Amino acid sequence: MEKGEKLMEVFNWNFKSVKKPLEIVAMADLHVGSTECDMKLIKKTIKLIQKRKAFCILLGDLADVGLRESPGASVYENNMNPKEQLETLIELFRPIRKNILGSIVGNHSWRIEKVTGLCFMKIFCDSLQIPYGRFQMMNMINVGKQKYSIFSIHGSSNAMTTEGRINAFKKQLDTIESDIYTFGHTHDKALKIFSKRIIVENKVIEKKQYMVLCGNFLNYGGYSEMKGLPVMQKGAPLIKLYPNKHKVEVDLHWWEKD
């Protein structure tokens, strides 16, 4: 690696004056434009982010962008063309653009870049003036007296079970150090907590690492039904970061309670 070469985007945030837990919703795999997209749930989630004054990270595949040669749903099965999908996403997220901590590329928007050279997600981020993390990003967040790190990648896995997907992503715990790891792509919604011992000031302490699979916003049908894939839990997880002690909570079903 050359001196000064950047491996990923790192975004720094300071919420030192916060007294209550900082809330972050990790949204992935909306697939706007798909005939299975649950637009009602997307709008509800965005309204709840506004209501709770929460923040948000976006983990790719916000749009379906089916092309003629695409695996799965093709352009003929989308109910919007790519331009309409982009415009819809911009309008959906405009009300919370100041709450978005960053957005990355998923494999669906990558289709357009491979064919045309145009980066769908960068256009989206530039339009809303939100941080663009390309393929990976790290959010370094000061909350009260505490410091937290959240690593995000869309990811890739063909595993058919939750445990298999967790194992596929587990390698990231060895390649980058973080408190929280967020992943998209699998459409699964799950939490796995790992523990390891580290040395801090000549003391051995336990460090917890939280792996979060970030769900989806698709009704069952289409490609999933054709391939016999399992029905996945919809929605996005809510991550809470506490200001007075180093504590993380992840709620996979928060939107169902509100």
Describe the structure.
It is a single chain. This protein has helices spanning 39-52, 82-93, 107-116, 120-128, 162-169, 172-175, 222-227, 254-257, and strands at 9-15, 22-27, 55-58, 100-103, 136-143, 146-153, 180-183, 189-200, 203-214, 238-241, 248-251. Strand 2 (22-27), helix 1 and strand 3 (55-58) form a beta-alpha-beta unit. Helix content is 26%, strand content 28%. It has eight helices and eleven strands. By secondary structure, it is an alpha/beta fold. Helix 2 (82-93) runs parallel beside helix 4.
Report the biggest beta sheet as strand number plus sense, adding barrel if it closes: 6 strands, mixed
Strand content: 25-35%
Spatially, the strands of the biggest sheet line up as 1-5-6-7-9-8
| Overall form | globular
> How many H/I helices?
8
CATH 2nd-level architecture of the domain at 20-152 and 216-257: 4-Layer Sandwich
Helix proportion of residues, in percent? 25-40%
Number of strands: 11
CATH topology of the domain at 20-152 and 216-257: Purple Acid Phosphatase, chain A, domain 2
Mean pLDDT, as a whole number?
Answer: 89
Show unreliable segments.
Answer: none
CATH class of the domain at 20-152 and 216-257: Alpha Beta
* Quaternary organisation: single chain
Which radius of gyration do the C-alpha atoms yield? 18 Å
The secondary-structure element order is EEHEHEHHEEHHEEEHEEH
Structural class: alpha/beta
